[in-house]
Amino acid sequence: MPADPLHRAASPPPRSTTSPPTGGGRPGAVEVRRSARRRRTVSAYREGDRTIVLIPARMSEAEERRWVSVMLDKLANQESKRRLGDTDLAERAERLSEQYFEGRARPETVRWVTNQNTRWGSCTPAEGSIRLSHRLQGMPEYVVDYVLLHELAHLLVPGHGPRFWRLLDAYPRTERARGFLEGVVAAEALPRSPVEEDD
């Protein structure tokens, strides 16, 4: 018989703290969630600019601190492996152009930039240059691919008319990627509540 969600053993409420930078981990809000059902495993994931760490309820405060540090470092390492350098980005753009545009979109340069905070990407067709915002680093691959394809399409069609969107229709995750990016923008516009710290 499946467990009744209304009658499960109560778990302590989640704790919210602000973590200092540790090793490769990034600083930010950390929420520790203890679970009576969790016996040995510890896991963590990012939720916006918060990190959620799931631990067994029986862990001591010292074990909790150690595992939060370990999991922050582990997440940071995973994220850094997913990030592409400029050379990787240019190779990726070439593959996408071949796959979706028969190789017709051929940029001269493709690179990450840190000065684009209101746009995800930009293209200067006259120079054949494509720039992607560093804010995309660590986002799902299909989102980065969509932004790359969007800028590659501008090498073929400068504006955002019907011909431009027909080109992007070839990419099956266009709508999903646009929805993801719209969600990021909406989340960033939400007011942030102050982080509560436990004594």
Automatic annotation (TrEMBL):
GO terms for molecular function: hydrolase activity. Signal peptide: none annotated. Keywords: Hydrolase. It holds the Pfam family YgjP-like. The keyword Cytoplasm does not apply. Residues 106-177 form the YgjP-like metallopeptidase domain. Residues 1-41 are annotated as: Disordered. This is Metal-dependent hydrolase. The lineage of its organism: Bacteria, Bacillati, Actinomycetota, Actinomycetes, Kitasatosporales.
